[in-house]
Amino acid sequence: MDLHDTDGGQGRTGFAGAVYGSLLAASVVAGSAVDGTPLYAGDLVVVLICTGVVFWLAHVYAWVVSSRSQPLTWQRLRTAGRHDWPVAQASFPPAIGAAFASSLGLSDRAVTWVALVVAVASQVAWAVAAAVTARAPARVVALSGAANLVLGLAIIALKTLVGSH
What we know:
The chain is built from six helices and no strands. By secondary structure, the chain is mainly α.
């Protein structure tokens, strides 16, 4: 199977980008505190979205240059951009969660935790959706969700451990 097919982000490759992008967003949130002080909510939203877009552009670039046998065309760039867009899209839910939490008057620390929980929950949801869409057996769906939850919890544990010093 061509990992860079043109399914418009709806098939397994779109889910993979969304899972990866959600894990990236969780990592960005976890690493966003400077000297133990969380970013201001607005800054966190900007960092999340900009990082998602930068990684999306990096994926598009990598895809285009990895197929050296084909000429560089706008169509190939558009196809690559559409294919990997879920990487950038995955930064939106935690950014929206952070903005919403901030609008409720929550502290920047609480906003950070809301964004982190949303990123991990999104990652798990995308992994489960991918397994369900692939018509995987129930145990594989559960394992996919559990594996992604463990990855997300590892990021949360690292944030907690490193942030406590």
